[in-house]
Each structure stands twice: as C-alpha cells, then as structure tokens.
Amino acid sequence: MAYVAVTGGQEAIARANELVGCYRLRGSEHSLDVKQLERQLRLLVDRMMGEGGLYAPEYAALALKQAEGDPAEAAFLLRAYRSTLPRNHYSRMMEPSEMRVIRRISSSFRDIPGGQVLGPTYDYTHRMLNFSLRGESAADIAAAMQPFMEDTLDGMAEYSAEGDSRYSFKKVADLLREQGLMAQVRSTGAQEREEEPFDITRQKLTIPASRSARLQSLARGETGAMTALAYSSMRGYGVVHPTIGELRVGYTQVHIPHPFRQAGEAGEDSGDSVYIGEMLMTEVETINSFKQDSESGNVQFILGYGLCFGQNELKAIAMAILERSLETKGAAPAQDEEFVLLHIDSVESGGFVSHLKLPHYITFQSSLDRIRQAQQTQMTRRDDKQSEGPQAKPKEEKTDANDRAKAERESGAVSSIGI
C-alpha cells in the first residue's frame, strides 16, 4: 500500500485534538475520578487489562477515561504504554489451583468438594434496568455495603484461624484424573517447568505456533471476536461443544526470584522467592469429547483450558473452546490457527480497519488513473464501431422498409376479412 506524509493542516489537527477534550468534558461540572472508574466499572477494567496485556487496574481505568469509554482505543493505549516499560523480573510459575477463590462453579457436577461458590455474578439476575441507580446516594451505598462489611470481619477471624484451606479448593479436573477419566498432567518435571515459553511480545508469531504462543495470543484477544468464533464452533462450524468442568475466579499470588540470590544457588521449587502481590484471574477448564489415549490406550476426556486477567468469564470460556478447537483438524474457521490467532487481536484488527481513515491519496489516485484509462479504452472502441456503422446502414434501412410494407399488407388483408 502507498501512503503520503501529511505536512499541511497541522493547525487543524491540533484543534481536532483540543476538540476531543472539549467533547469529553462538555456538559460536566466534575471530571470522572479514576478510582471510581476502577472500582465501579471493574468488569470493563478487567477486560481492558486482558486485551492490553498489562495487569494495572488504575492505568486501565485511566485509559478508559482518556478514550471516553471506547474499549478498542483504551486497549490500544494500554498496549502502547506497556511497550515502554522495562522488564525487571520474571515471576515464578503461578498455580491457579491455589488461588484465593471468590467464585467457583461447575456445570458438569452438582456436588463438588467445597461446594458451588456462586460469588459475584449476573448469571441469575433479571436483565431489567434498575432506575433507582440514577439517584444512588452515599447513604444507599453505605446501606448496601454494611452487611458485607460485617461478614468480612467475621470471615477474617475464621481465615486467620483456619489458614488458606478455607478459600482454596481442589480442582475438579484432578478428581477426574484420580479416576482415570482424564489424562495426567505430564509437564511436572523440574526441567520441563524451566523451559522458557514463547514470548509473543518479543518474538514474531509464526504459524504453526507452539501451545504457549497460542495461549498467550488467546489470553490477550478481544472478547467479542473470541466469543463469536467459539459460538461458531458450538453451532456446528467446528467440532467443539464442551461442558464446563470448573470455572473459578480468584486471587493468585505472584512471586519473583529473590533479587540477591546467586545464579544457580536455588531452583524453581526451592522457595527462595519474594512475594510481590496478587492478581485477580479467571480460569476455566472445559470437558470435551473423549478419545483413546495413544500411550496408555485408555479412553479419556479431553481438557480445554482458558485463563485471563480479572473477572472475564465469557472470554475465559471462549478461550478454552478455541484452545481445544485449534487442536482439532478441519476446515471450520475456529479450527484454522492462522485465521483465529491473527484476527482476535483488537489492536491489530482495529488498527488495520481504522487506518483506512488516514490519507490514501496515492492509492486512490492509481485507482482513478486505471478507471479513466478503462473508460478511454471503452470510448475508443465505441467510436471505432460507430465509424464502421454507416457502410452497413442502407442495407438495414432497406430491410426495415420491406418489413413495414409486408406488415401493412397483412394488416390490410386482415381488415378486409373483418369487413
């Protein structure tokens, strides 16, 4: 494609940027507080962190404020900011099975160890507008929070007495593995755990991609695009239509190697690490159709896996479906690795579509030249045909005169018979 540098209209561009600020604030006496956006638009903030590839709730809220709530623009801002940050440490391998759960359900089993923990969800609510939220006051907020504050204080006392076991649960997939209904996890050796995964932020994604590259691409994919592709597979344009073995939302601890540890002094599992915080994550494990294991010969269920920042259950489910779908062979869109991985990225797809608004003068000028040349060729051929036309015209006129005379005679004969 051809582009030209825009050198004129710089003042107009500057004014357009100023106008964005005007439209963002017009009709408002107070600016939106970033902390309020972070706390009260948490699901949108979680989605932006996932698509931006940066776990920073405050910065995600700031990006949403700057982008006037446009998810694509906010994800672009986060991704651009992320590219400027230095990489100081690599975290230890995280264990979602040990997360501090706030929500955990299974649609495959009614009774699971620890029970179903519904947690914060809209799954069981009526989709009706709550008009009382228009006049929500500080007193209403305090009244809504008071019961949960009391439960939190009681829970903290029990938590300190019982330890982490009250908030961590055994995974449903592990129960199936114990019964021989699902393949065992093979990547348990220290050497396998030390293998560095593919980094899509520093290496160009190539097709076919490794599983780590696929999971990274899916983890920061656009929620709507992934949902559409997963839905297509479930409707028949694919072979994956799973049930959810377990969906869990919770906080996972993040550790980094001790900064003063000497190289080779301690391994991955030595515990020589520093706790730096925790991240809210959503993990989904789906149970798909069964097949015969090539090594053991046993018939076992196949697992699909999804993991993303924050509470974004729709994306995690779609990720588990697509992750499994890409392992199958077929001609469906959801089974095409290149089609899926290169089209779910909101920054890539949105940027390429949006760039059509930028100057394409040379590109369009070439199209104008081609269509004018085609029109000129067409006119030349038409003129050539017209120049050859008069030589054959008298013969055509004579034939037409004979046809009219014959028609008049036949008409007169019919009239005579009628009389």
TrEMBL record:
Keywords: Lyase. The keyword Protein biosynthesis does not apply. Transmembrane segments: none annotated. GO terms for molecular function: lyase activity. Residues 372-419 are annotated as: Disordered. Residues 380-411 have a biased composition (Basic and acidic residues). This is Carbon-phosphorus lyase. The keyword Transcription does not apply. GO terms for biological process: organic phosphonate metabolic process. It holds the Pfam family PhnI.
